[in-house]
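Appendix B, record 7
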Amino acid sequence: MSVTATINGLEVTVPEGTSILEAARQVQVRIPTLCKHQDLFPSSACGLCIVKTGTGKKMPRACATALEEGMDITTHDAELTEVRRATLELILSNHPNACQTCGRNGDCELQDRAGEFGIRQDYLPRRVTDLPCDDSTGSLILDFSKCIKCGRCVQVCQEVQNVWALSFLDRGINTRMAPAGDITLAESPCIRCGQCSAHCPTGAIVENDETATVWEALRDPGKICTVQIAPSVRVALGEAFGLPPGTNLTGKIYSALRRLGFKAIFDTTFAADLTIIEEASEFVARFVEGKGELPLITSCCPAWVDYLEKNFSDLIPLFSTAKSPQQMLGALAKTYYPEKTGLPADQIYQVSIMPCTAKKYELERTEEMQSSGRPDVDVVLTTREFARMIKQSGVDFLNLPDEKADSLLGEYSGAGLIFGNTGGVMEAALRTAFNKVTGENLPPEGINITPVRGLEGIKTATIPVADTKVRVAVAHGLANVENLLLQVREARDQNKPPPWHFIEVMACPGGCIGGGGQPYGVCNEVRQKRMQGLLDTDEKMALRFSHENPEILQVYDEFLGEPLTGKAHELLHTSYQPRPIYQK
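Structure tokens (predicted):
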């Protein structure tokens, strides 16, 4: 069923149930809003999207009102503009006048709306909440004074991520966003995924900015600063410089990092290939040789690890012990790299550029994150922080020549690259697991394992491998995961065969390409473009199997030995422990 109406005199036909806000976009009309986000249900919290329906004095909110047959909508006139300006003035009266020192300065939706409506002075006395910032997690900063009560963070935390770390406390003018129970964020069920910060329209929730720490390290003559970049960073960073989502800037990123002063440029994608070798070996050991329980569940996402340890600790035996690519590369940067180059290991300072705020937490998750005898990775910057560093440096980023990563820890395959997408870990692992079971590579027409691709919340497939079939499942966005794990738990408790043999989980919608530290403005359209940027690059690469990466083969031959054993086990694997949902 469809409905036809007019918006500002323009006829529009849309499916029944489409909101006025979405219908207006079909005729290139942008209705201002602060609370509505494409990922979330409408809350009608801000009141900016009011419109006129042609009859009566009511001004319905376009985000939560469905377009009806024959409606005559007016979205902009003098009266609506005046009401919206007054609404913004009310919001600003409860907001600090601190744009210059805010982490969202220049990239803030409230700042943008105030500029659009020409608000140049305070018309109402300010009444700003006087509460201290919460920096307890080390990954995220909550500044309650900047909250506009739009509800985005609460909704994404509760409904998209199923974490329930944030809620609204008190009533009326005293309503505020805070961890449930009015405790610190570190004491709450928070898993540091950062989706709250990615969806916040203001500076109320931002990543813990550590760019000053990195600048200081780069100036320190006693440190040899090395750096790694995650797969998904390269197809999102360009958005901070006005380029379309999905633009692959790998070569310019390497060039920029050298200009910033890093002595060696590594690529986390190399370690993604390394992770695949270990994880695929682990899967084959369980699936073919019967050494361990099934299903094997992936472990490269630290927010997901935290969630599992808190909510499904009885399933820890099913978790892959392989570290994340970040931590694997960090361990090799502090051991293998100095051994090969003769550089003093105790002077290596490893910086990691990630799409994820939880990666900051991962550095201290267990003692195994210091398998080199010191912190394997010293500091993590999000994509947003990295963009700030480039802008601070004065480098003309978009006009830089393309360069290459350093050898030893820089070569990668297309399989490692698609790690950044939901389903990418599964696809890469199956490419190598197929080889380990059959001794052959997938044929060219079978390399793209399309059933595990895309943005559907849960994807399942049966993949033929030799004379058997592997049942796999992929989930992203933690609200999609619970049902999956409940089925696994039920089968396990009843001693029934597992519903799947191999499960990939990514905490953030879309996987790492939608991580909590990526440029603002994420939605499924953006996620799809970032995802396609990685898939297109994989398609063009001559090297598409992790187990054929020559640098991976070299590091096993010269340093690690056999997968899952000896030095490989010592440096590349970790363990898990049950953790309480509420910390003391």
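Remarks on this record: The chain has three domains: 2-76, 91-207, 212-572. The mean pLDDT is 95.
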